[in-house]
Specification:
about 260 residues, mainly beta, Thrombin, subunit H, 2 helices, 18 strands
Length: about 260
């Protein structure tokens, strides 16, 4: 029998990224709200986090605008598959099952319009669900450096597919890179709490529906390698003319929800 070959550095990197995506997917939910007052038309993304040990869904405030907590519906995490790809290509997700939208037991909802942030507190029962991972947001990492690539997973509405008389949305993943503002004049951009990223799919589809998506990186730890996703920020909106995403930093989020980023 021939000797088994050790994976190459490229193969190891691909395997690590796939493990990271599977881990992130357990903390990402779709949110169904209103658009122009009509329920079921508004699609956004939320992230499962812990605040002082309590389970929350973190999203952009505009995703749930006009909805009471009992009106919101959620698309919960489900198993994912990684599409086949050529060496060097970033992984894409392939849905494996249709997941219905469903209500959750909501205890309270905190909204900050200035930061465009909403934290929906859930019943503690969800902490025991094995398919859900509620991420700690403190200590928050520093704002990512220019040139850093992050993982953004969400439910872009332009990728919806017809399903009978309705439609369904599935989770997609993109890999935006942090960029500098430079001399660009960007309305309402706040460099104290926000940062900018490019949008790799700008020529393919609009990022609407990614609103509220976490921007994830791996928490570096010594010892045995683990995926350990860590939120660096949350996507809020898109400057279409500049083809740039803007996001609120995890430090700003943690400072508001926990009183400190550390």
């Amino acid at each position: 029998m021939g000797e088994s070959k050790s994976p190459t550095a490229t193969e190891l990197e691909a395997q690590e990224l796939e493990a990271f995506l599977r881990s992130v997917s357990r903390s990402v939910v779709g949110i169904v709200g209103k658009q122009n007052g009509e329920f079921g038309k508004g699609i956004g993304t939320g992230n499962l986090i812990q605040v002082a040990g309590a389970p929350h869904v973190l999203t952009a405030a505009h995703v749930i605008a006009g909805c009471s907590p009992d009106e919101l519906r959620f698309i919960m995490p489900s198993p994912i598959q990684i599409q086949e790809r050529s060496p060097g290509e970033k992984p894409c997700l392939r849905p494996t099952e249709i997941v219905p939208r469903e209500p959750l037991h909501v205890k309270a909802c905190r909204i900050d319009v200035k930061l465009d942030m909403a934290a929906i507190e859930l019943s503690d029962i969800y902490l025991g669900f094995q398919n859900l991972s509620f991420r700690e947001i403190v200590p928050a990492p520093p704002v990512p450096n220019t040139g850093d690539y992050l993982v953004m997973m969400g439910f872009p509405s332009e990728q919806k597919q017809a399903y009978g008389e309705n439609y369904m949305v599935t989770r997609f993943v993109e890999y935006p890179m942090v960029v500098e503002r430079g001399s660009r004049l960007l309305q309402d951009f706040d460099p104290a709490t926000q940062f900018l990223l490019d949008y790799p799919a700008s020529e393919d589809y609009d990022p609407a529906g990614f609103s509220g998506s976490g921007l994830w990186l791996r928490k570096e730890e010594s010892g045995l390698w683990q995926p350990n996703p860590r939120m660096a920020g949350m996507f809020l909106g898109y400057y279409r003319g500049s083809k740039l995403l803007y996001a609120v930093s995890a430090r700003a989020i943690a400072g508001l929800l926990c009183g400190s980023a550390s």
